[in-house]
Amino acid sequence: MAKNKNFKNFKKNNFKEKKFFHFVLPEEVKRSIWAVFFFLVAVIITLSFFDKAGAVGKFLMRILPFLIGKAIFALPLFFLLGGLSFFSAKYKGKWPMILAILFLILGLDGILTLNFSNNNLAQKPEGSGWLGYLMSKPLLSAFGFWVTEIVFIAFIIIGILIFWQLLKPLTSKKEIKFEKEEEIKEKKKSLISRIFKISKPEFKVREIPPLSSEKETTFERQPIDLKTKPITEVSKLMPALLPYQAPPLDLIEPDRQVPNSGDIRQNSAIIKKTLQNFGIEVEMAEINIGPTVTQYTLKPAEGIKLSKITTLSNDLALSLASHPIRIEAPIPGKSLVGIEVPNKVRAQIRMRELISNPNFQNSRSNLLFTLGRDVSGLPAYADLARMPHLLVAGSTGTGKTIFLNSFILSFLYRNSPEILRLILIDPKRVEFPVYNELPHLLCPVIFDSQKAVSALKWLTSEMERRFEVLAGAKARDISSFNETAAAREESILPYIILIIDELADLMAARGKEIEAGIVRLAQMARAVGIHLVVATQRPSVEVITGLIKANITSRVTFQVASQVDSRTVLDMAGAEKLLGQGDLLFISAEITKPRRMQGAYTSEKEVRKVVNWIKSKFKSQEPEEEILENHLSEDLEKTLETPESDSDYLYGGDDPLYEEAKKVVLFAKKASSSLLQRRLRLGYARAARLIDMLEERGVVGPGEGAKPREVYFNNEENSNGGADDKEGWKKV
């Protein structure tokens, strides 16, 4: 019985709708058909005036004057306006146009009837129609001539207002002045695409706003000038110290593509039907059309487990003929489930609209940067100061380096070199050389792993120095210190951002030192304005260790090869279902659930233009206009030149107890780890390291099993010359 029941349900679901001539037209095609129909009626009536419409025209010229009289001559104009209204973005169906035409005809026919009647409506006057006569006679007897006239004028005004409201989106664009020829062509293209675009469902749909909108067009013509826009509260206190003008927006390209999600009405019906086949009743909600994916939201019926829906991703992908499909259950802040389906045509997001957005321009944070656009097409930003460090992961070619370029450009459009400094580490040697000679850099781009270790060591010492400075000023963090320093007209502490493009290569070469430096900075450097951005194409536990993950909670992941890599970065699956080319998931301490976005694309040409513009502006400044000198870059360059400094033996330098260990060995005339442990009160590991250092410097001899090591002394330390000076060290 159960098999027969399942077979009947299968037949019912699959063969019920297989009828001949059964098809559904998209909504935009229906609009175009109705518009053509209205235009056709207008043409037929117009040709009927000249007896050029055949028998149908003659019939219309007999029946229409009988109904509306002389108002027939305005009828083609009314139908022409009705046809244009179908192309409006505020289209609500054909009935508003029909209602507007009816109001105009009744008002016009009523006025003509009153003017031809000479205040006598005992019989229908010549030139008027029966509709106007039947409307005018009761009104005239009830209100009189002038009130009836005003009523019919009100009918005409109502019809005009309806048409004006429907035609307003088509005419409002003509109010924009001083446009370039390219912008006018883009507007024509957007109008044509809006006329023939893919259909919309009856439920709520949110799309990316048109790129040629009035607000964005007028805003793009205004260059950003950070002299008049506050960077932070510090910039308000000392405007003379920040003569920095952000690069113009003309250096970067605007958005030019529009996403195509296919027939969203049909896809919504397929999703609902597929879930019903598995016994899951849902109610479809709004649809969000993003640049990369379209999110179909639905609300399951009461008693439905979300796990039943999340396990059907492959079945939905088969039904929609689209792969891969990601299910977000539930959507944060909503009692809905989101099904993200890849678009047929993806839109490429550029930096220009994101940077010109008021949310970016009016932000008080110096470290705000662009992430891209979310699944609803809305701009997304993040504040590095609140993260306070960032981990970027993803397979090769998924958009990590482009994301880092957009990341850097966001800072270049907001901060002068005196507010922000960068340290770029590029083991691949081909990604960051374009930024060389940028005034924001503390040192040239670092390619060598040893110099990278030295840079981390210098940042650690700089962090400790800054903590002492903040403690002396009794400031809690760098922002409060800079406000106080600016009020006193003293030099401020710039933010320092260390960006590593490929962590896997550094971990393979100097894993322990790199991990120790990153962990030390990630734990304490936030308060003093030092932030880390680490990127890797190999998200494995050997590269992204447990200590690094524990201290860097904000992460951006692009498409990865497997679910294991996704769990390594995000501690959950999902990154393996991304689409590549900038499609990313973002998670931070404030956002506990991954948020999907499409990252902004920045070409190498755009980066080169911005960097060259900033270099030219910086070099053209006169000495008296330059900001107070900061010697951070000089100190860092000295550290890079002498990477084996003895200031911190944890990074490969000398142990501070080396000289004391040397004296102990020479005085005792024997050397062993146990001797140093007893005399200097050390652990075995450090004592053995001191013995190895003494052996490398020639103070003690090599170990020979159970025999004691030989100890040597330097003649230069105990004599003023002689034959023994040629030999240097002598056996004790």
Beta fraction of the residues? 5-15%
CATH superfamily of the largest domain: P-loop containing nucleotide triphosphate hydrolases
CATH topology of the largest domain: Rossmann fold
Net shape: elongated
Q: Unreliable stretches, pLDDT < 50, 5 or more residues?
A: 10-23, 170-203, 207-241, 620-631, 643-652, 715-728
> Which bin fits the share of residues in helices?
40-55%
Distance between the termini: 102 Å
Q: Strand pairing plus helix content: what structural class?
A: alpha/beta
Total beta-strand segments: 16
The strand order across the widest sheet is 7-6-14-13-12-8-11-10-9
- Specify the biggest β-sheet: 9 strands, mixed
What is the CATH level 1 assignment of the largest domain? Alpha Beta
Task: Count up the helices.
Answer: 27
Integer count of domains: 4
What is the level-2 CATH architecture name of the largest domain? 3-Layer(aba) Sandwich
Round the mean pLDDT to the nearest integer and report it.
Answer: 77
- Rg calc: 38 Å
Main attributes of the structure:
732 residues; alpha/beta; Threonyl-tRNA Synthetase, Chain A, domain 2; Rossmann fold; 4 domains; 46% helix
Characterise the protein shown here:
- With 732 residues, the protein is of the alpha/beta class.
- The chain folds into 4 domains: 25-172, no CATH class; 257-342, Threonyl-tRNA Synthetase, Chain A, domain 2 (2-Layer Sandwich); 357-625, Rossmann fold; 654-731, Arc Repressor Mutant, subunit A.
- Helix content is 46%, strand content 11%.
- The chain has 27 helices and 16 strands.
- A 9-stranded mixed beta sheet has the order 7-6-14-13-12-8-11-10-9. A 5-stranded mixed beta sheet has the order 1-2-3-5-4.
- The longest helix has 27 residues, at 145-171.
- The N and C termini lie far apart (102 Å).
